[in-house]
Automatic annotation (TrEMBL):
Organism: Keguizhuia sedimenti
Name of the protein described by the UniProt record: GTPase
């Protein structure tokens, strides 16, 4: 099972900085960033690494408006699962629904949630 860490906070740059500090460069990792950078993208250069894949999706509540995008993106990621996934979340108002989504079938057999990281 692949560990997933939700990184929460309103500032995209702060979420990216937090993720950059948590990523193990030797570990195959996918970072799914909600929204586009609100300044210089901290992970921009790190995305060129052979062990780090950066995916950006448009901002929007991942359990509501972004549900289909999240499903499709996760399914693509899990075809060749990394050792770690970081999910950057701008709007944590429905975080319990997002937790439920990530721990329900089919993801309950593929992913496990680590403790959320708040920026």
């Amino acid at each position: 099972m692949t560990p997933v860490t939700l990184v929460l906070g309103s500032s995209g740059i702060q979420r990216e900085k937090t993720i950059a500090n948590l990523v193990d460069p030797a570990c195959p990792t996918v970072v799914l960033l909600e929204g586009f950078p609100d300044g210089k993208a901290v992970l921009e250069n790190a995305g060129n690494s052979s062990t780090l894949k950066i995916i950006r999706v448009a901002a929007g509540c991942m359990c509501c408006t972004g549900n289909l995008v999240l499903k499709v993106t996760l399914n693509r990621i899990l075809r060749d699962p990394p050792k770690q996934i970081f999910l950057s979340v701008a709007d944590a108002s429905h975080i319990e629904k997002l937790h439920h989504f990530l721990t329900s079938p089919p993801y309950d057999k593929l992913l496990f949630l680590t403790k959320d990281c708040r920026t």
